[in-house]
Amino acid sequence: MEPIPGYETTKQTITAGSGPVVAKGDTVTVHATGIVEEGNKKFWSTKDPGQQPFTYQAGVGKVITGWDQGCLGMNVGETRKLRIPAHEGYGAGGFPAWGIPPGGTLLFEIEVLSIKGKGGEL
């Protein structure tokens, strides 16, 4: 795992992608699976039955800090692992509704499916 400059979240590329990269302000659609490191318990996956890919606006604080910063620079088709400490995730309060305990460290595997920049599909 390598550090993300200025953050404690770390990243590791699992599968390289190609083409456009995720930049601040882009609309990004991903497959994602989240696990609480303490206990190794999955709390969410877009690949589970009945779930769909997740779409968000990158780099502008619409998702937790570790995810927001950890996905910048990813290419379409890239799969990356992120390890997000609590203070860059859901913090001291956790997210009990999803089974994330107070101070929980999060592990995400994220695959970029598409990127739409301000001018449309990239």
Task: Describe this structure as you would to a colleague.
The chain is mostly beta strands and 122 residues long. It has one domain (2-117): Chitinase A, domain 3. 5% of the residues lie in helices and 43% in strands. The protein contains one helix and ten strands, in the order ββββββαββββ. The strands form two sheets. Strands 1, 2, 4, 5, 6, 8, 9 and 10 form an eight-stranded antiparallel beta sheet that branches. The mean pLDDT is 95. Residues 25-116 form the PPIase FKBP-type domain. It comes from Micromonas commoda (strain RCC299 / NOUM17 / CCMP2709) (Picoplanktonic green alga). It catalyses: [protein]-peptidylproline (omega=180) = [protein]-peptidylproline (omega=0). This is peptidylprolyl isomerase.
What layout of secondary structure does this protein have?
Elements: E1 2-3, E2 10-15, E3 18-21, E4 27-36, E5 41-45, E6 54-57, H1 65-70, E7 75-76, E8 79-84, E9 106-117, E10 120-121
Antiparallel strand pairs: 1-2, 2-8, 3-7, 4-5, 4-6, 4-9, 8-9, 9-10
